[in-house]
Write a structure and sequence with these properties.
The complex is a heterodimer of chains A (132) and B (394). Chain A is an alpha+beta fold. Chain A contains three helices and eight strands; from the N terminus they run ααβββββαβββ. With 394 residues, chain B is α+β, with helices and mostly antiparallel strands. In chain B, helix 6 runs antiparallel to helix 11 and helix 11 crosses helix 12 (325-350). The chains are: A alpha+beta (132), B alpha+beta (394). Strand 8 of chain A pairs parallel with strand 8 of chain B.
Chain lengths: 132, 394
């Protein structure tokens, strides 16, 4: 009996249920694509804070040089090849510049006198916190 | 017959089910004449739609984020404080961080060694030698730090505020040099101010040594971090990291995994080592790169040996692992001053759980309990010297 049923149904036409299943499959496909292919490697960005407040969000995969106005003056950071570093800062110890290149998620450099900080953030950073 | 049909049959042929439940046995007519779509039409809204809605809801639900990590930074305590909370919705987390920021602001104001405030007032009255009433927030600081100072062999010594001021490390801005004269340094060192010179009677304090001047620079941060964590726990937070200018205490974990902490390289760039933290642990580092000035080609850093009056030599940084942040903070200073030869004995008497010391020559001294926890990044260090294990004192 079941065989006779399937003989009758197969290849006849598209049923509403089929359309629903196809639609669901398409939605899942798009979602998976967005989740795993669309974003860049680690989805990493740089968060710049000035005086403890959010200042800007920078793309870690777009080479650029940015001037950040802080409390004392302008700090310059540069981004290249997925890495970021302080280029110059109007502080006296230049600790921020000595930090060198940051590239792993969670890494962080700050110029405290100028109240400027940069941190690499992403959905699953390499480090949650930095001890120094 | 119904028992013989596979379960899938009832899903793919719901019209059949309907007939069956209606107690009318499907006849040949039902199979041939009733086109499936026509038969299904009345039951699509009732049976199939809810079925797919449930599946779609599950799919969408898995995409929308459950409350993950909430991260906020604020400038307080003369440094950048970074709070990370896991598993709490954003609104609640923001309120909680605001509470913590208020705590830090209060402590910074009350515990500054030279600015007007509770501790500033104590320091003004101490040289008189008379007894006076102390602000309540200062009393636990004095008691706890006196105990820790003693167990560190007076290497951690909050009573040397005058020496810190003489070198210029008491100000927010780092000094420019020149270093103080040897005579001025020797004068303070000879008076030997320690926490034992303080007599605390209930809420009244008196100093028997006029040279005592309290500066909780190497200690207040640890206390503040402990208080912040205690406050978070009171508010029902089980997973968090409070990082005050590089010194941190972590509780719980980050969802399914441990908190990942990076320890910065005291010489050169980037991260020296990674360590996973789970449960409750404080990691504090004292380094010669944190505050310093250069004068005529010589470098002077901020960690002063109270016995000599000069910056301690031979160590680049000391990282302390401990449960309590205040003890970790005091121990980081004390072990830095103790140096390569004496650090193990001081760590033992203070009761910390783990130590990683980077000597000036680049050699790394470590307690063996860190062997399987600390992973060195990039290039392994040229020399690791494993110490004897620290036996649990107390």
């Amino acid at each position: 009996m079941i065989n006779r049923l399937s003989e009758r149904y197969l290849g006849e036409k598209l049923f509403t249920g089929d359309l629903v299943i196809l639609l669901a499959a398409l939605i899942v496909l798009v979602m998976l694509y967005l989740q795993y292919w669309h974003s860049n490697a680690n989805g990493e960005q740089v968060v710049v804070m000035v005086s403890g407040k959010f200042w800007s969000n920078l793309d870690l995969y777009e080479d650029q040089v940015i001037e950040i106005p802080g409390k004392l003056g302008i700090s310059i950071v540069s981004i290249s090849n997925g890495k970021i570093r302080f280029r110059s800062s109007p502080c006296s110890t230049k600790q921020c510049i000595h930090q060198g290149w940051l590239h792993q998620g969670g890494e962080f450099a700050a110029c405290l006198p100028n109240e400027v900080s940069v941190q690499i953030v992403g959905p699953d950073p390499r480090f949650d916190s930095i001890n120094f | 017959m119904s028992k013989l049909l596979p379960a899938t049959f009832w899903f793919t042929e719901p019209w059949f089910a309907k007939r069956w439940f209606a107690k009318s046995w499907p006849t040949k007519r039902h199979f041939i004449k009733q086109c499936p779509v026509d038969a299904m039409r009345p039951i699509i809204p009732r049976v199939i739609k809810p079925f797919f809605i449930v599946i779609l809801a599950l799919l969408l639900g898995s995409c929308s984020k459950s409350p993950g990590a909430y991260h906020e930074q604020f400038l307080e305590f003369g440094t950048l404080v970074d709070v990370k909370i896991w598993g709490v919705n954003e609104d609640k987390a923001r309120q909680i961080v605001a509470v913590i920021a208020d705590d830090f602001a209060f402590m910074h104001q009350a515990w500054h060694a030279w600015k007007p405030g509770s501790l500033g007032r104590v320091n003004q009255l101490l040289p008189s030698g008379e007894k006076f009433t102390v602000g309540p927030s200062i009393i636990p600081l004095i008691k706890r730090s006196a105990k820790l100072s003693k167990s560190s062999g007076y290497r951690f010594n909050p009573a040397i505020g005058r020496l810190v001021r003489l070198w210029g490390f008491a100000d927010d801005a780092p000094p420019q040099g020149p270093p103080p004269t040897e005579k001025a340094i020797k004068e303070i060192v000879a008076l030997n101010p320690t926490m034992d010179d303080l007599i605390l009677n209930d809420i009244q304090l008196k100093s028997i040594n006029p040279a005592v001047h309290l500066d909780f620079g190497g200690f207040a941060k640890g206390v503040a971090v402990d208080m912040a964590i205690a406050h978070l726990q009171e508010l029902g937070i089980e997973n968090a990291i409070v990082n005050a200018g590089g010194d941190l205490r972590a509780i719980g974990q980050h969802g399914e995994r441990a908190w990942r902490v990076g320890i910065r390289n005291p010489r050169g760039e980037g991260i020296l080592a990674a360590v996973d933290v789970q449960g409750d642990e404080s990691i504090f580092t004292s380094g010669d790169y944190e505050r310093f000035f250069e004068y005529e080609g010589k470098r002077y850093h901020h960690i002063l040996d109270p016995h000599t009056g000069y910056p301690a030599q031979g160590v680049a940084s000391v990282t302390i692992f401990d449960t309590k942040a205040d003890r970790a903070d005091a121990a980081a200073t004390a072990l830095f001053i103790a140096g390569v030869d004496d650090w193990h004995q001081v760590a033992q008497s203070m009761g910390v759980t783990g130590v990683m010391l980077v000597a000036s020559d680049g050699a790394i001294h470590m307690t063996p309990n860190l062997k399987n926890r600390v992973y060195f990044e990039n290039q392994p260090p040229n020399q690791i010297i494993w110490s004897k294990p620290l036996s649990i004192a107390q």
